[in-house]
Amino acid sequence: MLQEYGTQEHVKVELDNFEHGFPDGFGPGRWGHLAYLIGIAFATFQIIIAAWNFLPSQAVRGIHVGFIILLSYGLVTNFTAKTNWQRAFGWAIGAVGFYCGLYQWLYYADLVARDGDPTNLDLVIGTILGLLIFDGTRRLMGAALPIMCGACLLYWFFGQYLPSPFNHRGYDFDQIITHLSYGTEGFYGVPIYVSATYIFLFILFGAFLERAGMIKLFTDVSLGAFGGTRGGPAKVAVVASGMMGTISGSGVANVVTVGQFTIPLMIKFGYRRAFAAGVEATASMGGQIMPPVMGAVAFIMAETLGVDYAVIVKAAVIPAALYFASAFWMVHLEAGKHGLVGMKKEEIPSALKALANGWFLVLPLIALIFMLFEGFTPLYAGSMGLALTVALILGASIVAGFPHKVLRYIFWIGLALIVGSLFRNGSNVDIRYVAAIVGVLVGISAITRGGRATLVACRDSLADSAKSSLTVGMACAIVGVIIGMMTQTGVGTVFGSWVIGLGEHSLFLALVLTMILSILLGTGIPTIPTYIIVAALAAPALSKLDVPLIVSHMFAFYYGIMADLSPPVALAAFAAAPIAKENPDKIGWEAMRIALAGYVIPFIAVYSPALMLQTGDPMEAKIGFYGAVVYATVKATIAIGLFGMVAIGFLFTRMTVIERIVSFIAALFLLGEFTYSDELGFAVALVVFFWQWRKRPAPPLEVAPQSSA
Questions:
Q1: Alpha helices, DSSP H only, in 245-362?
Q2: For this UniProt entry, which segments traverse the membrane (predicted)?
């Protein structure tokens, strides 16, 4: 049953650096084997730490960074070096970086004892660590992020010579290096803590689900449900990418997995190449705002705000649904405008049959979500979800060799009873028993033919997960420079005072400034560091302007994602371009148009916090909290519906310029916060709706067949 849901081949996407993935494999010959083994060791270490956290947090962060530097230098040189000597030199540098990280564990007690009074060796190790993180980030992601962090470092060293209010009191070399390399507000700050715990675990969780065949399940269910509707292939792309977002936090990874199937299918059924690629780019980037994973930012946000992870997930649910509903609405209107039809019935797989064959793949995801909302830590929930996924994969390979269905049922029922017995004393299961069950399944798989092949696939998933975690981990490490500089110098208050000063006159202008900052930063650096920087600079200022704290952080997060859809960079568009065989700039502009809701939803949430399930909504005093949630959701739905009509120029028939202008005004009324703004917006929207309905084309007349003489 598992074999039917095998993984699909990925389309290779050539980018300027390794930010969105390495080539297939681990490199040539013995060097590739070395990288593969270190990747397995890295993943194994992370699993052990997640299950049995027996090391101090600072030591875990150090070893995590050490592995990232070692494997990053190793893989980059494996793929770019031309001689074995060059590869050996790259691996040697990586080994030095690994020792710098290991230093936090080897001398942990001594470092704690002499905190604030570093030795010369401490300063040397800390300096080398910083140089390798900067250079490693450049090798993985290009120069933009290192240049930005380098500018912050220069300010940290020489900012005392600037005029007020930009100057600070000045800091010595040893103060800066100690703060960066040995504290919890520099390289080893909250971002790297989250990378060393939650992020890696959920990357591994997603990799195992993909290995089990989740991509094919999502695609088949989407095809069965929407393939036959008007413009069905594009709707399949939106729904399948939304489903992929529940297990994958990478927009570009979604483009090159789901997009390899959906983009050619959309083009085949009449969508323009740029529009088809734009649909996939928009839907795939939306995967970063789709709970429960949310591109790993949810974990960082929860740690930063000091709230339960479930609080962040709940706040993201309605906006994420609106984002994908908007993309769905856009492709529906585009299909109507150009008369595009759906797929033929015989070309569409049965959604029910796909669920019947692969329903068990959804169990780990359901268990994960249940545990997160029940208050378990993401680390525990992710560990249990991963264990359940591995048990399902190994169990499926074991029963595949059974000659009779009865034996298969007996096996699954027995396994379910064993797992169920672990919960007899409550849901907080001892991870040792879970590990024992997985160990037994591994032992059984090792003596069966199909089981051995599955174990190899699982081993490959461990190594691939380590490879996938490198760019995220390196970004989390280097962005510690900005966090450390801001916490020690207090320069963030300068930008915050600008936002607050602007917001006192116009909150809207303060939001626009924050949006522009997020998009500008996001054009050069990944979403995670973009969020961290903007959240540190602007989110506290917005909260002082009576914007709920979670809403202000989500505001910064959303526009960091939108940057990947906004030309001239538009990395998601670059990833889709070789699949669609179209110009990336054209794809980027189409994606911006399709993702219009993504640009307005954060503004709606600021003025109607109930959209993110936060208190303080203006309507809450009139109709209660849940009434305000429903009202905000309905208003936002109508607003993004109007924006869709404006962008596509169609509802029941093609819209004139005047109709599009009136629709745009109605949408702005719904976004506004002035007297009778909502009432005016609803009224104008109704006028546009009925005007378009009245102009709709009459259905074709059916001509009765004439009888033959």
A1: 251-268, 273-285, 297-305, 309-338, 351-358
A2: 34-55, 61-81, 88-106, 141-158, 190-209, 274-300, 312-333, 354-373, 379-402, 409-425, 431-448, 469-487, 557-579, 591-611, 623-652, 664-691
Q: What is the DSSP letter of 162?
A: S
Q: How many helices (H) and strands (E) does the chain have?
A: 35, 0
Task: Write out the residue range of the structural domain in which residue 147 sits.
Answer: 29-185
Alpha carbon 420 to its chain's center: 32
How far apart CA 596 and CA 604 sit, in angstroms, is 13
pLDDT value at residue 630? 93
**What own/partner pairs with CB < 8 Å and gap ≥ 24 does 7-12 have?**
7/210, 7/211, 7/213, 7/215, 7/216, 8/215, 8/216, 8/257, 8/260, 8/261, 9/260, 10/256, 10/257, 10/260, 11/256, 11/259, 11/260, 11/578, 11/579
For residue 503, which of 604, 614, 606, 613 has the smallest C-alpha distance? 606
* Predicted confidence (pLDDT) per residue in 665-703, tens digit: 998 888 876 677 888 989 999 999 999 888 877 665 544
Dist. CA 205–CA 382, nearest whole Å: 7
DSSP 356-376: HHHGGGGHHHHHHHHHHHTT-
Alpha-carbon span 456 to 30, nearest angstrom = 18
pLDDT tens for 299-317 read 788 888 888 888 888 888 8
**Residue 704: inside a domain:** no
- Cα separation of 636 and 633, whole Å? 5
Question: Partners of 327 in the beta sheet?
Answer: none
Answer whether residue 512 shows pLDDT above 70: yes
Please check whether residue 187 is in contact with residue 129, taking contact to mean a CB–CB distance below 8 angstroms.
yes
Where is 559: in which H helix or E strand?
Answer: helix 549-562
Mean pLDDT in the chain?
81
In 581-619, which ranges are continuous DSSP H helix? 584-594, 596-607
- b/e map of 549-565 (b: 16 or more CB within 10 Å)? bbbbbbbbbbbbbbbbb
Token pair for 47: 């699993």
User: How many Å apart are CA 691 and CA 681, to the nearest integer?
Assistant: 15
In a domain, residue 472? The reply is: no
423 contacts 471 by C-beta, under 8 angstroms: no
pLDDT for residue 493: 65
Which pair of tokens denotes residue 379?
Answer: 């680390």
Whether the pLDDT of residue 204 is over 80: the answer is: yes
- DSSP secondary structure code for residue 150 in this structure: H
CA–CA gap between residue 333 and residue 656 (Å, rounded): 15
Q: Which residues contact 498 (CB under 8 A, 6 or more apart)?
A: 513, 541
To which residue do tokens 């960091």 refer? 560
Work out how many domains the chain is built from and give that number: 1
Give the predicted TM-score (pTM) of the model.
Answer: 0.77
Convert the pLDDT of each residue in 6-55 to its tens digit: 433 333 434 445 655 677 788 888 999 999 999 999 999 998 888 787 88
DSSP annotation of 654 reads B
Enter the tokens of residue 301: 């946000």
What are the structure tokens assigned to 611, written together? 């959209």
Assign residue 270 a region (left: φ > 0; alpha: ψ between -120 and 50; beta: otherwise): left
56 inside domain: yes
Quick one: pLDDT at residue 106? 92
DSSP type of residue 295: G
φ, ψ (nearest 5 deg) of residue 523: -70, -20
CA distance 522 to 77: 27
